[in-house]
Lipid/polyisoprenoid-binding YceI-like domain-containing protein
Amino acid sequence: MFKQTLIVAASLLALAACSPSNETAQAEQPAAEVVQAVPQTPANWEVSDAGISFLSSKINKQLGSITEQSRFTASQAVLDKDGQFKMEIDLSSVNTGIEIRDQRLKDWVFETAKFAKANVTGTVDVESVSKLALGETINLKQPLVLDIHGKQINLEADLSAQRVSADKIMVSTLSPVLLDVKAMDMTGGVAKLVEVMGLSSIVEQVPVSFNAEFTRKE
């Protein structure tokens, strides 16, 4: 009987030695993933200094074409919880990379002394935007109204919106929005540029691209 008891005790000790301790077993379990809480109720969103760029194509007298990219460096926008979108662009912040050309655009084309700002407005499906999960993307065909140089122009922008964090959504154009120089009543200023620069012409369709990070505000 004593011998049998020793055998059973030895077996239990052996099993105990082979079994992982509670601490070891817990360490071997995969760590729980940290899930970031993403608010999905309509909210106010703001952005400052969005990336707004445009392409201009000029044709010289040898019929060679050159396309250049320029941008606006000062803007602000809001999207409120009711879906009203408003953006204001400071036209005097135009940056072509050449100072004298910037000044000519401001004086002759945009006429910033009279028309300092451009405004873009629209009504956005804010429910769909607010309900984006982390990393999720939706595409929107967004009607907009551009108020520039004393003219109001109806536009439609193909946009992509992606939730990049709990409180940030990245919005960008999937393809540039085409603006027409005639519709904006800027042909006179463009004609001056053509003459001064000794060009054959400047293409009157201007592709504009946009990207911005919207931050959620309570």
Observations:
- The chain has one domain: 44-217.
